[in-house]
Design brief:
homodimer; 208 residues; alpha/beta; 6-stranded parallel beta sheet; 10 helices; elongated; DNA-binding
DNA sequence: TTCCGCATATGACAAATGTCACTTTCCGGG
DNA sequence: CCCGGAAAGTGACATTTGTCATATGCGGAA
């Protein structure tokens, strides 16, 4: 099995290479120490798996991974990180990484590589324990704090589905002009300019 | 430990009650068979944990759970379901449920309840295996397939930030009319009606 | 070169949108 | 009972938006 290894810290890279190659199953085709190199080396070697640090100088491992997956949707990316860092986990997961394991657990790295190559996904215990917590919805947007009424709330939702004023009026059994007034008031309360910004607001602040 | 149990199927509810109470540790304070009841019974009993089916007549367990969490952010909700149903898992997770286990694994239900009460989250093996896959980004939107050019792509993004035609024109050094034309063409290609729908499309199909 | 296609642009127009000032209706507290 | 304030509506208006027909310039293919 050929792998490419990327680690900020050359020393870590080297010792890992030694450990991994000592298994006899794994060959470290190339190694690098930056996100840019990760992409380049992946293009060059098309390894079975790329083993990559997350925190690195310059381009993060996540960004590099995203780029690699864009070019090679089947790429198998396994992140190796020093400690379980919340945002990174969620990013790595949602990006489609095949795994995320802690460097401390170095004895599981080789087996994890095997598993990943076979198409499995691997996440360390401590990682998986965090997932539910991470996936909790962001704290709900506080409509009350902005003085937004129930009716206004439902209007936001309809705008955010792309309905016209007329359509909204129909759904809520209101006059079209009334809907316009509601939207006008909403835009005022939220400091926005038009319905498109309202939809954007919905997706980024409320539902995002 | 007091729990409230909600199951569509009265028979299941009854046998589970028997099983759980036979441990001596668990008391089923109340049981119901619908989402509405779930909310009501939660309000009434404030159980340590609420054990709830997902698929039910009327309001789904997810919706009921959402409502309960809205009123009681510390509520511990444990879903019990017949089989691992993809959308449900993701919904339950992102909603902030404390767990999601299969009815088949009835021997783990009691221990799971304990764990949840202690603040842990619990997910069955088969469930956890699905998480990475579920979190994968939706397959990237294929601009080419819809014949969308680079410039059009960047215009979508600006629209999705809520910019007006004039502002977009300024950013891209184009005439305002030109921007209108691009958007018009874009709407045509994507089968949409106005810029708001375009923004919605961006957040739901492209970036969502 | 000529021709085609693309990107860019303009002008005219209808429709949708946002703003504002002003009713009407209704409901609960005094 | 009357009052005041929501909720809902109307009409007028300026602006923005989307559509369309058409024009110009530019680079590549025939």
């Amino acid at each position: 099995m050929d792998i490419v290894m990327i680690d900020d810290d050359r020393l870590v890279a080297l010792s890992l290479k030694t450990i991994l190659e000592s298994t006899g199953q794994i060959r470290v085709t190339a190694s690098g120490s930056s996100g840019a190199e990760a992409i380049e080396l992946y293009r060059l070697h098309k390894p079975d798996v790329i083993l990559m640090d997350i925190r690195m100088e310059g381009m993060s491992g996540i960004d590099a991974g995203r780029e690699i997956l864009r070019e090679f949707p089947d790429a198998k990316i396994l992140y190796l990180t020093t400690f379980s860092d919340d945002e990174y986990i969620i990013n790595a997961l949602s990006m489609g990484a095949k795994g995320y394991i802690l460097k401390q657990d170095f004895e599981v790295i080789a087996p994890s590589l095997e598993a990943v190559m076979r198409g499995q996904s691997v996440f360390g215990d401590k990682i998986i324990g965090k997932i539910p917590e991470l996936m909790k919805p962001k704290e709900r947007f506080d409509f009350d704090a902005h003085g937004i009424t129930d009716k206004e709330r439902s209007i936001i939702e309809l705008v955010a589905e792309g309905l016209s004023n007329k359509e909204i009026a129909g759904k809520l059994f209101l006059g079209e002009g009334t809907v316009r007034n509601y939207i006008s008031s909403l835009l005022d309360k939220l400091g926005l300019r038009d319905r498109t910004q309202l939809a954007v607001f919905y997706y980024t602040e409320i539902k995002g």
